[in-house]
Amino acid sequence: MAILLRIRQSPVFQQPPPSGYLPGKAAEMVKGGKRDMSKKAQSATVSNTDAHAIPISLSAMLVTLGVVYGDIGTSPMYVTKALVAGNGGITSVNQEFILGALSLVIWTVTLLTTIKYVLICMKADNHGEGGIFALYSLVRRFGKWLIIPAMLGGAALLADGILTPAVTVTTAVEGLRTIPAMKSIIGPAQTNVVIITLAIIIALFLIQHVGTAKIGRAFGPIMTLWFLFLGGTGLFFVLGNPIVLLAFNPFEGISFLLSPNNHAGIMILGSCFLATTGAEALYSDMGHVGRGNIYATWPFVKVCLLLSYLGQGAWLLANASNPSLVGIHDLNPFFEMLNSNVRPFAVILSTLAAIIASQALITGAFSLVSEASRLDLMPHMQVFYPAETKGQLYIPMVNNVMLVGCVIVVLLFQSSAHMEAAYGLAITITMMCTTLLLFFYLHNDRKIKVFPWVFIVFFLALEGFFFGSSLTKFFHGGYFTILMAALIMGIMVSWFNGTAVERRQATLLPLRTYLPQLDRLRNDETYELMSDNIVYLTKDSNTDYIDRDVIYSILDKHPKRARAYWFINVETMDEPHTFAYSVETFGTDYVFRVHLFLGYKVNQRVNAYLRQVVSDLSASGELPDQTHEYSVYKKPSPIGSFQFIMLRKLLAPESDVDSTERTAIVLKYLIRRAAGNPARWYGLENSNVTFEYVPLFTKFKSVDKMQRIAPDERP
Questions:
Q1: Alpha carbon distances (Å) from 303 to 234, 299, 309, 342
Q2: Neighbouring-strand partners of residue 598
Q3: What does the pLDDT read at residue 392?
Q4: 259-311 pLDDT tens trace
Q5: pLDDT, tens digit, 9 for 90 and up, residues 675-694
Q6: What pLDDT was estimated at residue 655?
Q7: Where in the cell is it found (predicted)?
Q8: What is the pLDDT of residue 680?
Q9: In what order do the strands lie in the sheet with 591-599?
Q10: In the prediction, which pLDDT does 17 show?
Q11: DSSP-based three-state secondary structure for 533
Q12: How many beta carbons lie within 10 A of that of residue 475, not counting itself?
């Protein structure tokens, strides 16, 4: 008999009941009774892009400016600086260099960010979610090998996300030295810059728990002011030297790239690429703010960015012969071109913008890891949804790991000049992987014939040039991001391979065939009663089947006698406040298959919800009374004790697996242990929980038959 009870959506249930919720009151809050399971399940699982799309509005656009564009929005602080330094400094600046370098920057932003990501990539969303893992989920059926570029690109993007907060905040803080009063306080040593940078980064990560929406509303006005400042100051210098507008001609960039006056050679593309490093994060953050709001705000952002680059170029042309600039160490045109009265405001504003740039990568990392967990490329971790939108999430484990990584980067590299050498290399790998996956989406999923071939040839060639130029930075700091990407990739590969081994041995058994044994066991008084109710949390959502490991745990690992056996599956729904459950009793009063359908905003307090389910079944007579003679309450509850059992698999030494598979399993279990305590995820920290280890069912190695000898003999 299948029963579905829908919990009333009253204010009481906008937040789930506490763990100490009294089961006797549960039945009073139930409405309905028996419902048709198929209809309810069908309506509960409806999910599509339109249903969860974030509408376009001024407030949402403001959040978009505060969340999405931080990384790409702060690029004017260091792109021109890197271009000038790479070409020999201020003494090498001339009109050919300015027009050529600016042209390369303009068309890099246009081709990679506007055309590839905004106009093409953002059409490839998975129920509103963006990013390379969301893209992979759309094309995975077209080839098993596509998991390789997905993992490689995701690992590289996460590695870049650790570096971005460090390089942007350090660059902004170093701008304090362009103010004479602050320079005298900070001094020439880099130690004070490092201390200030670390304080800002730590504070940023500590506020992530409040949620993207709240952060975006706080940061949105600041970023709006930032972009207006970029555009306004840039326009001021462009009007004074409008010849820089010739940089819109792409042939200026191509001719300079091949010119003997290009002292950096192909390496100049590595510096130009820094102007578009936030493009992949923009795609990953789509689920936080909605595609429409990015479309509505990107034109404004791009115009302001290009005006800033052009303005810096115009100032350099006008001041290339200024002898006072030659002696400035690590010259940054972005700050130097400003009037001394405006510069303090610019430094403060740029520091705030740098903090927001870090925010863009952090939120993108949350989305990436969430998608990776759904694809079983990373372990399940505790996820919080601080806002009403499912895309806006917070993962404490990811937040803490990124914080530690950023601190290490700052302490290791110290200055922004050293960090810039490591910046951008990993993201080129992500972009090439995205291009490859996007080809399969356009060609195989969207059934477009010709355009995908043009797309993949053009963008792989373009990004290949950028990768080659960035690779020259490998020994100057690029090695660090590659090592981080390799570490993250190793985690995903180990988890993926370990899961594959587990799946090969996984077996689902028909639960009905074991009902007679469970019935005999519960009445077999030769075994001690372990608990009135034994509860297993299962991953599979199939009502009629159960994982073999669960049956093995009950029957084979010293039979576990109980009055009732509960097998619970928790499914997170796309609606925020879904609060329902179904129960299959198989016509018994001792076996219960429970499915909890919980909205993503509902805390997974399994203990509290199970108490309610048990109370309902007790009230309906489907669960016999489990009366206790002793209780802290005056009237003992008709519901007995509960024992939660969480299974963990172990690979026996005798298992017949090769060394690669054995290593994958061992590494997966080490990663799982580091990912946190699942009892806390399900609200069982105050419950009676037992972690039980069961063998990973695999083929065992054959062993030779031993010879039996007499007690007084020796072999």
A1: 10, 6, 10, 22
A2: 572, 579
A3: 60
A4: 888 777 777 887 888 888 778 777 877 777 778 888 899 999 999 999 999 99
A5: 666 666 666 666 677 777 77
A6: 64
A7: Cell membrane; Membrane
A8: 66
A9: 30-31, 2-7, 579-584, 591-599, 561-573, 529-538, 642-650, 689-695
A10: 33
A11: strand
A12: 9
Domain borders along the chain are 58-498, 508-628+635-695
Rg of the chain in Å (alpha carbons):
30
Phi and psi angles of residue 658, each rounded to the nearest 5 degrees, phi first:
-75, 170
**CATH fold of 58-498, please?**
Amino acid/polyamine transporter I (1.20.1740)
Buried b (16+ CB within 10 A) or exposed e, 536-558: bbbeeeebebbbebbbebbeeee
Q: Which residues does the chain have with pLDDT short of 50?
A: 1-51
Whole-structure pTM value: 0.72
Report d(CA 208, CA 358) in Å as an integer: 11
Residue positions counted in the chain = 715
Give long-range contacts, CB 8 A cutoff, 24+ apart: 526-532. 527/559, 527/561, 528/561, 529/561, 529/562, 529/563, 530/560, 530/561, 530/562, 530/643, 531/562, 531/640, 531/641, 531/642, 531/643, 531/688, 532/562, 532/563, 532/564, 532/626, 532/639, 532/640, 532/641, 532/642
How far is 395 from 366, CA to CA, in rounded Å? 6
Instruction: Check residue 307 and give its pLDDT.
Output: 94
Residues facing 384 on adjacent strands: 394
pLDDT for the residue 624: 85
